[in-house]
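My current task is to audit a protein record that another person submitted. Thanks in advance; the entry in question is below:
***
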Amino acid sequence: MISVGIIGGTGYTGKYLIQFCSKHEHVNEMHIYAKESAGKNLTDLFPEFEGSIKNMQIKSVRELSYDHDLYFVSLPHGKSLEVIPLLIEQNKKVIDLGGDFRLNDVKLYDEWYNINHDYQYLLDQKHYGLADIYTNIDSNLIANPGCYPTAALLSLLPLACSFNEMVESISVSAYSGSSGAGKSPKQHLLLSELYSNVQAYNVGTHRHEPEIKQQLTQCDYDGNFTFVTHLLPIDTGIYSTSVINLKDEIHTDDINHAYFENYYDKEFIRLRNIPPQLKWVVGGNYCDINVTVKNSTVIITTAIDNLIKGASGQAVQNMNLLYGWNESTGILSENQNNNHKVLIEGM
């Protein structure tokens, strides 16, 4: 049994961390830390927890205890740098849901995040926590992937790693609900702005682009890559469409074999015979993937819940991998586990 500290536990991702940890059979203690919300009661912030999760007072980050075994850090970009190095010095296990440790080079943080990053040694020792791909964790610092990179990389890596010499170009168009921008009020996220509207944003400048490219490089792919994000008039979900152009035609069975080999035993990956729908994944930790091959072009459509699979659910999945527990503990009920196994075996 372990004690867990959740730093920044009052945002959208923090809410799910609280839910998952409160029912986790290996977590016997949980404390929540925040800044503006410090001193308030949990049920004041999340009234829906009344009667289902033990009420507690939110503690101040300035009074952070070093007595916990593991810390989830869910802070805005740049803020994790103020906390995580101190936790690592105390030999604590840390799962960072922010972007401060996802990249491998401090120079990229100046270029893409406009922050001064002085912790190259932590970037060198961190584990990039794409939980359904990188399951062997040998670091106390886990950088939880971004929501867009989770959807894109789970789509691309089986192909990019198996057929990298055949790949000519990769293009990803991804769409997110408004919750991906967090709780802070912003004009373009007002209902009157979102309703009946779709827009591309941060074209060519999105911070998740170098994160995706970094992992593709691990598969020895350094060819042409484009990434365009869009905002949908919904609150939750990410839908990603990847178009991969190959140098030669490829048989559908060869592609399907690569994906099956990578994902046949993965609890939270569902390979679909048709393009997935967002409503199939919202509220869960699943990633639904469909692969379509047409001559020398591969089209991959993918759907995830950005707050769960793209954040808190994957973070708890990483905690389970770190401690050697069942990967779905605290995330799925036993009945859900069984149902998922039937789905995979019946494909």
Observations:
- The two ends are 37 Å apart (CA to CA).
- The longest strand covers residues 167-176.
